[in-house]
Amino acid sequence: MEDALFSRDVAAANNIARPTGPLEEDPNLQEVINWFTKQPELERRFGQSIRQSIDEVLDGQRTGRFNIDELEKTEKTYLGTKVEIILRAEFRLGRGRDMDYSIATHEVDSKFTIGENWTIPGEADQHICLLARASDHKANYRAGLLRIHSEFLNAGKNRDGKRTLSTAGRSAVRWIIPDGKLPENILLTLSSEERAAIFNASAGHRSSGNGGQSRTNELFRRVQERLINRNTVLTVARQDDSPKRVRDARIHLRGDGIMILGHMKQHPHIARDLGLPVPDKGSWVAVRVAEVTASDSARRTTRISGKDYAIWQKGDRDDVAPAEY
Amino acid sequence: MEDALFSRDVAAANNIARPTGPLEEDPNLQEVINWFTKQPELERRFGQSIRQSIDEVLDGQRTGRFNIDELEKTEKTYLGTKVEIILRAEFRLGRGRDMDYSIATHEVDSKFTIGENWTIPGEADQHICLLARASDHKANYRAGLLRIHSEFLNAGKNRDGKRTLSTAGRSAVRWIIPDGKLPENILLTLSSEERAAIFNASAGHRSSGNGGQSRTNELFRRVQERLINRNTVLTVARQDDSPKRVRDARIHLRGDGIMILGHMKQHPHIARDLGLPVPDKGSWVAVRVAEVTASDSARRTTRISGKDYAIWQKGDRDDVAPAEY
């Protein structure tokens, strides 16, 4: 489904390339923008911070939740605070005197929304706001800066005396990340049938320990060639020790020809050989492989213990995965 | 400082031993009470759940906070939700149809406060509430059950239409844990001088890595013979890997005769020998030791690599701690 507001904003985001108009008279705002644009890996770190915030509030390990729509109202409110905390830690931001942050010596307030608009409190008037908005369903987010003026806000106030950003206000935002990629929420991207198969994989088990393992096995069986992070494993396993669940899944799935690659040993090297996403610490990628002869040069292969493996395709034999890799 | 309300409640808590009066006409409430009182290690697990909730919302690793008074309003509100989530996971409680939990087939709502009273929403009327209250400063908490009736609530409503429990309401609570011990928040118990010495121990360091280690060393140097948990180390170190910080502190403090005992190897055995609190997984206890002769029978000793050690006392030599234990 198309999101009209978001699309319109993307067009407005071209503002960032031509800082004309009121910005010329706001060197402080420009200094804050400059500070952000100079941060190494800004987009990746900002997106990872939002991902981590959402995952912590979902608390999948304890609740089994993976969909932000299931959060209670108090949790949605708190999510903004968690984003503020994680961004402060990630970018080592100072605390402001009156506002959340001190950035390039300027007071900056942090506002985050998973909805259509931001709600701005009266105290923020005349202050610079860092505005971030994320859609977990679309795996994207954007972040920008705006100095709040009354003409940028809609007239109506909510019960807390907060006002939403007007169309003029949204157009005036200087986007530092106009179209950021949010790390994928894998469980949200699956069909309900796939999810049911994973979450019900434990139905035959009495002990929750074995159940968590069965669900983890099914996750890696069904979600291949895509990065699966620690939080997804915790949400599926509902247990503490995600690396242990993954190590055991590696053993259980070997007979099905499935390898699970992490960030250790030769794993990143194997992932690169096969053209798979390369796992960082705390993420994994599963792949079904088949032994191939070296002469089969049309396919990407990787060599493990003297044998060549390619990603399994129709017509390949049903091989077991390598025992050690 | 004495807490009048809390003390009065403790007197009322004797109710639990004589379930007379309205309770006789409320077998459902009695079944919920019975369910809780049958849970193994109820008090320890309930207290640990509250401890964990407070620590997660403080988020000491990222914020350096250890005092609940520093929480923002949205965080204090969210704390109640976190307690609800962690209690549900710890006691494997089902979800209610209308209320938070289903316990012994009955609908039960979860209400937690760090203040003087609970705020009860209109929807809870006629429903059973699990009421918990904690004081991190006093390291205690209590939990009880009450079926909400209008006469148990004060007349005034807050902005959200919620009402506080009246004196009659508080007297009617059936306490399942009238005087629970909350695992200690070590940093909160230290004098501001001690805390400053720990948090400023990194002042000489440029890199935050070394700084976190210096602060961890100072923590274990200053807080001896008391359990220090993982969260306290994370709050002081402001880093991810608390076990690594502790292992390194063990090396750094050896020259000062300080041992750091965890839950592995002979550590719990050594702790018991010396009459120290015995660490579980994720907690440690530091102790300064001195070599003693076996004939010094008045003191508790432990034998490590053929030598006998006691807790250091005035008059003992300045020994180094054992290299391996």
Short summary of the structure?
The structure is a homodimer of 325-residue chains. By secondary structure, chain A is α+β, with helices and mostly antiparallel strands.
Describe the structure using short key phrases.
homodimer, alpha+beta, ECO RV Endonuclease, Chain A, Arc Repressor Mutant, subunit A, 13 strands, disordered N terminus
List the SSEs and their pairings.
Two copies of one chain form a homodimer.
Chain A: H1 4-12, H2 27-37, H3 42-58, H4 60-63, H5 73-90, E1 94-95, E2 101-103, E3 106-113, E4 119-120, E5 128-135, E6 140-147, E7 163-164, H6 167-172, E8 174-181, H7 186-189, H8 192-199, H9 208-222, E9 227-229, H10 230-237, H11 242-253, E10 258-261, H12 267-274, E11 283-292, E12 302-304, E13 307-311
Parallel strand pairs in A: 3-5
Antiparallel strand pairs in A: 1-2, 2-3, 4-7, 5-6, 6-8, 9-11, 10-11, 11-13, 12-13
Helix pairs in contact in A: 3-5, 8-9, 9-11, 10-11
